[in-house]
Amino acid sequence: MSRGEAAATSRYPGNGGRGRLRLMQLIDPNHPFFRAAWRRWLTAILPIAWSGVEFFALHSPIWAVIFLLLGAYAFWVLVIKGPDAA
Question: What count of other Cβ atoms lies within 10 Å of the Cβ of residue 77?
Answer without folding.
Answer: 20
